[in-house]
Specification:
- 44% of the residues lie in helices and 18% in strands.
- By secondary structure, it is an alpha/beta fold.
- It binds 4'-phosphopantetheine.
- The site of 4'-phosphopantetheine (PNS) has 10 residues, from strand 1 and helix 4.
Length: 162
């Protein structure tokens, strides 16, 4: 049976760390679904539609990468999709505690779903969407840390605020 993996998250915005994990997942699994959480934050910088559009554009030409949205419990979405695996990225020890709790809670909720942790390339281990937004809004360079499309959209958002 082909293995379908779900890579859930807020992706506000998509970073090159996410891109790296998705690319690795696409090599490992038959299909990987990037599942963007609806309503992850009350006021996300990027709308859900923008996040879907960006992720689809970045993975255009990758037939086994799909982009979707989900609401409610992750395990219910994974079951509905008939996926077997949840993929999460682990950057540093600091990620571990929360990820460990989520993985075990998800395992309790649905023991048939396995969580697989993947490490991004070393150069992305310190990147987070939150840091990208903060650094960019304060005038810092994020080039090389996010896809070009994200960088351009961040610039547009900053210009619109001026
Ligand atoms: O990008 P993030 O914010 O680290 O992703 C967190 C996410 C979306 C994976 C997590 O918040 C989630 O799964 N939310 C859906 C609701 C749910 O199932 N909560 C219980 C998780 S144990």
């Amino acid at each position: 049976m082909p293995t379908l993996a779900v890579y859930p998250g807020s992706f506000d915005p998509l970073t090159n760390g996410h891109v790296d994990i998705i690319s690795r997942g696409a090599l490992l699994f038959d299909r990987i679904v990037v599942a963007i959480l609806v309503n992850s934050e009350k006021a996300p910088l990027f709308s859900l539609d923008e996040r879907v559009e960006i992720t689809r554009a970045v993975f255009r030409g990758h037939p086994n990468v799909e982009v979707d949205t989900f609401d409610g419990l992750l395990v219910d979405y994974v079951e509905r999709r008939r996926a077997q695996v949840i993929v999460r990225g682990l950057r540093a020890v600091s990620d571990f505690e929360f990820e460990f709790q989520m993985a075990l809670m998800n395992q309790r909720l649905n023991a048939a779903i396995q969580t697989v942790f993947m490490m991004p390339a070393e150069q992305y281990t310190y990147i987070s969407s939150r840091l990208i937004k903060e650094v960019f809004s304060l005038g810092g360079r994020v080039h090389g840390l996010v896809p070009d499309m994200v960088e351009a959209r961040l610039r547009d958002k900053l210009d619109a605020k001026r």
